[in-house]
Design goal:
Elements: E1 9-11, H1 14-26, E2 31-36, H2 42-52, E3 57-62, H3 82-92, E4 96-98, H4 102-105, H5 124-127, H6 131-146, E5 150-154, H7 158-171, E6 176-180, H8 200-206, H9 208-221, H10 226-240, E7 244-252, E8 269-278, E9 281-290
Parallel strand pairs: 1-4, 2-3, 2-5, 3-4, 5-6
Antiparallel strand pairs: 7-8, 8-9
Helix pairs in contact: 6-7, 9-10
Length: about 290
């Protein structure tokens, strides 16, 4: 006989989330937590799987966070499919989902924000200066409400992962922050909720981002110029039909600082990070590299 899975618990207030967390701890269970903004895909579900490899129960959240969107971004149109998302989380083995309202996360009179200096102000932080403050603020509150032992974030948003690790370390959260590998479509495009915005022609072009990055990594790992490789990738993306390229940069994997040299040091761990636009859709991606 197949084992029957307990029903997934869905709550909408911080008190309910805190009560559930305390109950799990009273039972001696470790909690893994994977926050999301909904519009789930296989990449999100992989976070649940990773969490269950490190804990007894998996929790998630669905909250489209207004503080990480600027006035001209897509907060109002961001895809919202809560019923479908909850079904997917339950099927993936999630035990608990926190779906707070905006007023629950940001009570009337709210005036507190979390800023992570330096790391949050390069690359993505230069293009979207509001973004990481919103992310750090909402994640710190989710950590306080759910109180997990382990938190899992996708490496698809690599800079975000590093910012959250820094914040958790600085605040002393007793939470292990794990990164899960980027999930990709069969043709190599990084999975993203915003891929749904692409029309068929744009979707065909979108895979060019990962392919241009792979070619640049080949150049870097061969010991040739990093600047030459990234500039060639930018030019290639424009030639393909991307409207603009915000950045293509080779950085140190641990700090996102520049290498300070023309070529990557032998055996140094690096990340190639890129952001480019197709129509109204902004695509981001990153890949690891190590010079041979």
């Amino acid at each position: 006989m197949p084992t029957r899975r307990p029903a997934m618990i869905v709550v909408r207030t911080r008190r309910e989330a805190q009560d559930w967390s305390r109950e799990m701890r009273a039972q001696g269970k470790r909690i893994a937590f994977a926050p999301t903004m909904g519009a789930l895909h296989a990449g999100h579900l992989s976070l649940i799987k990773t969490g269950l490899e490190h804990a007894d129960v998996a929790a998630s959240s669905i909250f489209v966070n207004p503080t990480q969107f600027s006035a001209n971004e897509d907060f109002s149109t961001y895809p919202r499919h809560e019923h479908q998302d909850l079904a997917m989380l339950a099927e993936a083995g999630c035990s608990f989902v926190y779906c707070p309202t905006v007023s629950e996360m940001y009570p009337p009179g709210d005036s507190t924000r979390v800023t992570v200096r330096d790391l949050a102000h390069v690359l993505e932080g230069e293009v979207r200066p509001h973004f990481f403050e919103g992310v750090a603020t909402v994640v710190s509150r989710l950590f306080l409400h759910v109180a997990p032992d382990v938190a899992v974030f996708g490496e698809k948003d690599y800079q975000q992962l590093l910012v959250i690790r820094r914040m958790a370390q600085d605040f002393g959260f007793p939470i292990e922050v794990l990164g899960a590998p980027t999930m990709r479509e069969a043709d190599g495009l990084a999975m993203s909720s915003r891929n749904a915005y692409l029309n068929p022609e744009q979707r065909e072009l979108a895979v060019g981002l990962s392919r241009a990055m792979q070619r640049a990594i080949g150049v870097i790992e061969a010991g040739l110029s990093m600047r030459g490789a990234t500039e060639a990738a930018r030019a290639e993306l424009i030639d393909m039909g991307f409207e603009s390229v915000d950045y293509v940069e080779a950085r140190r994997a641990d700090t996102l600082a520049p290498f300070g040299s023309e070529t990557a040091p032998t055996r140094a761990q690096g990340r190639l990070l890129a952001a480019a636009r197709l129509g109204k859709t902004r695509l981001i991606d990153n890949m690891p590299f190590q010079r041979k």
